[in-house]
Design the sequence.
């Protein structure tokens, strides 16, 4: 009987809401919704035009090509609800134009590990070099490049030098490649 009563109440609430709602907005809220819709500007992507012209795009490509020297890396991308990580190399990095808007992307595709990375060049505004500390008991140093997006503080992709077996197991040649790029571009670079 309680289950039946709950269903009747639920159906009555739904029917009541539908009867008083026109265009998905209840009468009391209709003036506010109309005003908000009239003022709302068309949504635009802030990512486009972050790279400063062809010169900035060329600098970004040079930067990414140099990062191939990092060897094995951990790629990390996050949004408000998910974190995606993959261990790969940038050896297969290539550039291609595609999608409905024919935009240029930096791509790393490795079917052996199911990696399909497409980084919109116009969406990358800069990069920041960071040293961190591993979460292991030995607290080994980590070497990171944070690719920055629309906002100079928004990280769109993190590139960590990945160790082989232990956090301390990062070859000196790879650390030297990271350090050389940091010396060349500075701690923070704009594209």
Sequence:
């Amino acid at each position: 009987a309680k289950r039946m009563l709950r269903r009747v109440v639920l159906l009555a609430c739904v029917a009541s809401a539908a009867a008083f709602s026109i265009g998905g907005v209840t009468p009391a809220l209709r003036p506010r919704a109309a005003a908000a819709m009239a003022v709302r500007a068309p949504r635009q992507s802030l990512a486009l035009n972050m790279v400063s012209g062809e010169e900035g795009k060329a600098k970004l490509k040079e930067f990414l090509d140099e990062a191939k020297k990092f060897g094995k890396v951990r790629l990390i991308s996050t949004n408000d609800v998910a974190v995606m990580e993959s261990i790969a190399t940038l050896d297969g990095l290539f550039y291609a134009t595609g999608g409905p808007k024919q935009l240029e992307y930096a791509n790393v595709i490795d079917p052996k590990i199911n990696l399909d990375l497409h980084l919109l060049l116009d969406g990358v505004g800069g990069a920041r070099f960071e040293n961190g500390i591993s979460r292991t008991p030995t607290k080994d140093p980590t070497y990171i490049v944070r690719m920055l997006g629309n906002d100079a503080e928004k990280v769109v992709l993190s590139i960590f030098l990945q160790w082989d077996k232990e956090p301390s197991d990062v070859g000196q040649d790879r650390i030297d490649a990271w350090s050389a790029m940091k010396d060349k571009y500075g701690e923070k670079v704009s594209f």
Notes: The chain is about 30% helix and 30% strand.
